[in-house]
Fold:
Amino acid sequence: MAQSLTKGQMEAEISKLLIRFEKEHIGRGPEGARSYIVADMAVVRLRGVLTPAERHLARDPNGSALIREMRLRLVEGSKALLEAWVQDLTGCRVQNLLTDVSTRTGEHILVFVFDQNLEDSFKDRKGENS
Amino acid sequence: MLFFLWERGSRASARRGEGLCARRHRFMHKIYEKALGVTMSEDEIDLQTAIADLVERFERQEMGIQPTSVNVMVRGDVVIVHLKAVLPAAEKHLALTERGQDLVSRFATMLFRGGAQPSVEQLIARAMDKRVLDVQTAISPLTGSIVAMFELGEKTSE
Structure:
């Protein structure tokens, strides 16, 4: 699949995949997602990941810390599955997955670090086509 | 026979704008009454159904969870709300360890206490015309089931 997509299409597919993951595994889908492929990384920004009840709880410092811990532990538990999905889509092995959640903005950032330069593979293909 | 009762009750509930859990709650009361010979007044059933409906709506809209059932029981000065929901895959996985279970319990308790509890407390106080003295909640991290017990005090109108 990775071979037939442009960089923009791949970014859109990664966004869709992350939305599916959040809905099916975390149980709550985000309001939107945007992905960027930069060198050997894919950076995914998920917007509006907190439910209204979580936003309410996030006003309290203890509640905010608990939401963050819960979200990170949920992703950590499903890390192997998520990495496998991204690997299937991009054709690159995921070496590392870094993640954080902002309870202030309701944004969830995920950074996938690959074993090769994914961005360059699109440039090479463009060169071949022209 | 059961299907006939469900259909008839369901249509009446839908006219009142009640959710699926509330309809199921009203239906189950009819079954209990028939099976156990216990009769409840329409007011009691209406109150319990209204509370079930509110909790269901809250869970769906605020928590993003669709509960599978909400049962409400009023016994004297105590109101018990039992909510069942299906845990998402990631939470099920997290609940496999003791530390994970503790986190799921704390998270669900804080969400319920911070969000659902004030609205449900208000509704119960208004409907029962009594102050809510205390609320105790128990959460099962393995099933996602929540039981909340509201203890009622003196009448608010006095």
About this structure: Chain A touches chain B through 23 residues (CB under 8 Å). Helices of chain A lie at 7-26, 52-57, 61-77, 79-90, 118-129.
